[in-house]
């Protein structure tokens, strides 16, 4: 009988303690971030899709189409082509395609590239109803950015589809 | 029947329906907001100012959905069940006095009336489970019946205790007896029965179980039975069950307030009125939400053990104790 | 108040029905299907059906270079990717005889332990969700978020990490990370106490878990169950202690075991493990040596000498073993993954015979299954 009552009392007490914990949490401020209205700061190591880096001096792509990244990619989603232009030591890239539908964002390509010619972009909210939108022609994008930069600095380079980077 | 009587009826029918509807809608919001706060998040915020139109959006969404009757289901019962679960809650509100004057029908057997209608609720859930022709739903229906049988008993034993203590089945009179300061409320009437707070807790627990609320939500048990008896309901069929759950909570909390917390009586002896009733009732509702978001669900046999091994003996004991006390005190 | 006696199943021929739990069911947390033969609410036979998300990781390993398989390892048990990274990387290191700088080993330990805590926190929340308590899930996720933020800052990803490299780790940790670790240890300790009051001591939970789902030591041995499951049956089997790898030998930590073998024991093991992981992190952060984090002696084209190599680690759910067979080529001849969840799931049928449905789901939750880990 005593044990029985003790069990009831102890059980009830444990329930009350639990209720006290949640009530204490009730009056504390919320911890959530309201995503579309506010977003977290992105870490510098964030891995978005890859993009080509431009040489700050010449404005050209740094990539010289050595195809190391193409080989390093476990998902076979990079296609690089390049030609050797007259009077230049190295090849220069003419085509750089990324099939983002297959990319696992592993980062092997960026690590493999010894000339730091590719980097991760910060675009993360990319939406499309179209699969083709994610087969990105990175070289073309770089070229259009370059020409936009060259013509007038007033017009900003075309952004990624619906990307907003805080 | 005079015209004014008819008018009065009409006003009350509309009033009760509006009350139930509004409560059901906004208790869902309150529940979600409350749950949010307990979990350190703000709850719905997007629809309307701070999410105030969320219930409207939910309702519109549910109304837009097709009401699917699964093949092989008993279509008539399947459609009837949501109605059956909603109606008793509305009926009960007709006899619940909100204040001295604000009551649909002040009948002498109000107490019995409410519990009688409360019992229909179970049948409706069982019917929905049976008619759905879904294994999860049937398991849930079987659970609901045995759960409610187990919890009706201690609940009614408590009600009998109260009945003996107050000597009336008229809810209006029960509240009137609790007039004065808050120590005149039945909850603190230790002279009637020194175990009154225990009785209150038993009643509250049974109320949770009767309304299928966590931690006794065997009927829904979403992580075990998907959605239990409501698995096959889509659109407003589900919506009605959802609303009925809250309507039943309102009735349950109103009964708790009337029986133990002095109904519309102010705790300080002055300024009694409907406001106090609503304040107390929503305080109890808040506790119900608070309990839900604190505890895990009980297991089925634990629930029955709790009823048969703890609540029933305890409530029997309080019943006998009250009887003895009354005999001794009156003698 | 205890679990009722198991009703004898074979006494009389009774009408049974088959209940399909899953592949889409709230309690299976993934695409696992349980085919339950039920007698009322009692389970006569529970048959797990897996393979819904089989992705052929082992076969993929035979088709890509040693380094290219690395991202795959983070996607087997997505909740505890670090340990899986570790096992594979260490197996290849063993094969190719690559030395790992001490700083890298310490970083590996810290990140693996952080990941173990985050994995246990997810389990804690999800388990409580199975039991019908929603709030602890969000508290646990709040804590886990701190870990994910920290790990994201060093690894660049939040869940499917691919952080370790042959011969070290790919990025060095910074002072922020170290401070973050210290803060986190200080933060989680009181939170664990709070979980204790809110959940562990709760009478409803105790009644639901104590004495439910008994798994004996023999059963664990028979099915090869490891991790918290076997420790919940009272066997102090932990790869970190039994065959210490990396720098685990240098830390002072305990292997929590509970002899009861029921769901509560497994629950307590995991809760206690979080506290132990905190201890390891604390020590590792204090002892963290300076130096490089990536060995310079890794050949660009890796061709481990022919042979058969194994490496086992203690992942969050038990013993994870990678066996690689090399024939001195750029591509592995065979990659075999021994995942803990598969063995842990296999005892489910025996453990749940004659049980009620909610209890069986509690057992399922206490095994802490990650479905991709079963199917891999
Ligand atoms: S991130 Fe990985 S998968 Fe994506 S393109 Fe680079 S190497 Fe390929
Ligand atoms: S991105 Fe780098 S690795 Fe890839 S082709 Fe260009 S230079 Fe070579």
Tell me what you see in this structure.
The complex is a heterotrimer of chains A (166), B (331) and C (376). Helix content of chain A is 30%, strand content 15%. Chain A is α+β, with helices and mostly antiparallel strands. In chain A, the strands form two sheets. In chain A, strands 2-3-5 form a three-stranded antiparallel beta sheet. A two-stranded antiparallel ribbon of chain A has the order 1-4. With 331 residues, chain B is mostly helical. Chain B has one domain. The longest helix of chain B is centred in the N-terminal third of the chain and has 36 residues, at 3-38. Chain B is globular and about 65 Å long. The N and C termini of chain B lie far apart (47 Å). The model of chain B has no long low-confidence stretch (mean pLDDT 81). Chain C has one domain: Cytochrome-c3 Hydrogenase, chain B (Orthogonal Bundle), CATH 1.10.645.10. Chain C has helices at residues 57-61, 70-73, 81-96, 102-130, 135-155, 175-200, 203-209, 217-223, 228-231, 239-242, 263-287, 340-346, 348-352, 357-367, 371-375; strands at residues 17-21, 33-39, 42-49, 164-165, 168-169, 307-315, 318-326, 334-338. In chain C, the strands form three sheets. A three-stranded antiparallel beta sheet of chain C has the order 1-2-3. In chain C, strands 6-7-8 form a three-stranded antiparallel beta sheet. Chains B and C meet through helix 5, helix 8 and helix 11 of B and helix 4, helix 5, helix 7 and helix 14 of C. One iron/sulfur cluster binds next to helix 2 of chain A.
